[in-house]
Design a protein that fits this description.
The protein contains six helices and nine strands. The protein is α+β, with helices and mostly antiparallel strands. β1 and β2 form a beta hairpin. It is globular and about 50 Å long. The termini are far apart.
Length: about 220
């Protein structure tokens, strides 16, 4: 399949009762089994770069600012459920190849790691869209190897570059079960700033929305 097609990390269809159902792109269970096996019995480190920073949904024993090389944060993954609809797809951030990315790493103690990883899988990997990878993360207290949810540029969910007019249309109209793409973008930018992280691309997109009168 070619990138840029109208696909989504949550491929959607309507079931017989009129509710939105989700069709996985691939079975996430083998990916979970491989990830658990690779972790062994050690503490689990998780790298967050967007909503996992402002809505982690797990209790971490420790967290640190971190930077990974070879991947960067980009608002380039379609969302037809969480931040959009099938009729008006939205966008969420993904970690895609190239450049570097500052974010947060979280340490989950080994005794709780399997249970928390299962919960995390249910949140992030229920459609199997991401490529879970163990990445070397640089922190002020030394390097750690952390689990990150990445997206391949060959994924049908990857949009590639989006021109400003198209982005503004999405920011004006796309809204899903967790809110709008605009809210997601603004919250991500605000959270990064609170953490002392500046992302020029995210800041530029927020400024674009502000000039268009979409946000204060």
């Amino acid at each position: 399949m070619q990138q840029g097609l109208d696909f989504d990390p949550e491929p959607a269809c309507v079931d017989g009762g009129g509710a939105m159902a989700v069709t996985p792109l691939r079975d996430p269970e083998p990916l979970l089994a491989r990830t658990m096996a690779a972790r062994g019995h050690r503490d689990l480190w998780v790298f967050g770069y967007a909503s996992l920073i402002w809505r982690p949904e797990f209790d971490a024993a420790e967290q640190r600012l971190a930077r990974v090389h070879g991947q960067h944060r980009a608002l380039q993954m379609r969302s037809r459920i969480n931040r959009g609809t099938p009729e008006r797809p939205g966008l969420v951030c993904a970690l895609v190849p190239g450049g570097s990315c500052s974010g947060m790493v979280y340490r989950i103690e080994a005794a709780r790691a399997d249970a928390e990883l299962r919960r995390l899988w249910d949140r992030e990997m229920f459609t199997g869209v991401y490529d879970p990878k163990w990445l070397q993360c640089q922190t002020s207290q030394g390097p750690v190897t952390a689990l990150a949810f990445t997206l391949s540029r060959t994924s049908p969910n990857f949009t590639g570059d989006i021109d400003d007019d198209t982005l503004l249309g999405i920011l004006r109209h796309a809204r899903g079960r967790f809110g709008s793409t605009l809210d997601y973008l603004v919250e991500t930018a605000a959270c990064l700033r609170r953490c002392g992280i500046r992302d020029a691309a995210i800041e530029r997109q927020v400024a674009l929305a502000r000039r268009a009168g979409l946000t204060a």
